[in-house]
Amino acid sequence: MSTATMWLVIFAGGLGTFLARYSFFWLSDRKALPKEWVRVLRFVPPGVLGALIIPGVVVPSLHSGNVLLNPRVLAALISILVAWRTKNVMITFAAGMGSLWLLQSIEPLL
């Protein structure tokens, strides 16, 4: 692939991405979204977050063979419990990261 072709592909991809994202802003001024769409779109951020986090937690566990003693799985479970009890994102983040660091530091002892 030539350099010019590569830059053309990068530019076209960037333009396509920009237009796809800008279209929501452009169309939102003209007409409001239906209530069903708004209700469904509320679940997009948690779904994307789960899609980003779950593979990082589960896949290393599958390779190690011991799912329940994997520090990532235990830290994820602690984070879920803290999120459920506190409903506070920052406390959940701190508890999850703190428990992951602690569990990874004592993992060689297990």
Q: Secondary structure elements and their pairing?
A:
Elements: H1 3-30, H2 35-41, H3 44-64, H4 71-86, H5 89-106
Helix pairs in contact: 4-5
Strand content: under 5%
Helix count, DSSP H or I runs of 4 or more residues: 5
State the total count of DSSP E strands: 0
Mean pLDDT: 87
Order of helices and strands: HHHHH
Written overview of the protein:
By secondary structure, this protein is mainly α. It has helices at 3-30, 35-41, 44-64, 71-86, 89-106. The chain folds into two domains: 1-31; 43-109, no CATH class. The protein is built from five helices and no strands. The mean pLDDT is 87.
TL;DR?
The chain is mainly alpha-helical. It has helices at residues 3-30, 35-41, 44-64, 71-86, 89-106. The protein is flat and about 55 Å long.
Distinctive features:
mainly alpha; flat; about 110 residues
